[in-house]
Amino acid sequence: MMTFEQFNQKLKDARSRERAYALAVGCLKDRSRFDWTGVYSLEGDELVLRSFVGKPTPHNRIPVGRGVCGTAIAEKEDQNVADVRKLENYLSCSLDARSELVVLIRNGDEIFAQIDIDSNVEGAFSDEDYQAVKQVADRLADYFVRKPRLPERPAPKGTDAPDSVRRNAYAICAICKAEIPWGGSWYRCTVSTCNRKRFQLKFCKPECWDAHLPEARHRDPAYEEQQAPYSVR
Ligand code: SME
């Protein structure tokens, strides 16, 4: 689990908004009852999903005013919904979801983005949860105010998710074909021919890296542990 202090420290070195969103998700995702943790940025009159951990959602883009997320923007108010089944204006992303917390990333009336959390437990979000999410949201807002020129990658068009494999996992192990999850560890071979731009071998564990050696016949092989991003993009 990434503490707020670690998040704060890492944020100082973040060189894109994408990285900042992924750090926020990384910092919050392991809190108990947080079953889906994501960040939507506000782009024109739409919210665009920028980073998340949890099951893939069909709602990659949400118009202002729609669902709990869009309502937060329209009303300029954070939302803590104890039972989403009682809402009419709700966009379901999982049949298990029961409560939802949305905290705006804002500087006064200027809204940059929002942190969205879903829980499978009714009334999951305490005041302490809210304060923890708010602390991260406020820190991000402060960062964006100070770095107005931070680059942000253009969002993909439409609601199409990346190809079906990558929706659920960062990558597939080159040897055993196991999924390497978003935010999880993976291993790279340090030899350059295994790391070409369009061809990089990703291994889920050191044993799988071992398994590629006989065929690769490297002179001086080693592996390095890497961390997959907390993001679909
Ligand atoms: N439930 C949200 C949609 C986003 S998903 O939960 C990830 C809403 O009603 O706006």
Outline of the structure:
The protein is an alpha+beta fold. It has helices at residues 4-12, 17-28, 67-75, 127-146, 164-168, 206-216; strands at 36-43, 46-53, 61-63, 79-81, 99-107, 110-119, 171-172, 179-180, 185-189, 195-196, 199-200, 223-227.
How would you describe the overall organization of this protein?
The structure is a single chain. 28% of the residues lie in helices and 25% in strands. By secondary structure, the chain is of the alpha+beta class. It has 2 domains: 4-146, Beta-Lactamase (2-Layer Sandwich); 162-227, no CATH class. Helix 2 (17-28) runs antiparallel to helix 4 (127-146). Residues 158-166 have low confidence and may be disordered. The site of methionine sulfoxide has 15 residues, from strand 1, helix 3 and strand 6.
Relative strand content: 25-35%
Number of helices: 6
Shape: elongated
Q: Which small-molecule ligands are present, each listed once?
A: methionine sulfoxide
Rg over alpha carbons:
19 Å
The secondary structure category is alpha+beta
Oligomer: single chain
Q: Please, what is the average pLDDT? A: 89
Order of helices and strands: HHEEEHEEEHHEEEEEHE
**Which strand order does the major sheet show?**
3-2-1-6-5-4
The biggest beta sheet reads: 6 strands, antiparallel
What CATH architecture of the largest domain would you give? 2-Layer Sandwich
Q: Can you say what the CATH homologous superfamily of the largest domain is?
A: GAF domain
Helix content: 25-40%
Overall number of domains? 2
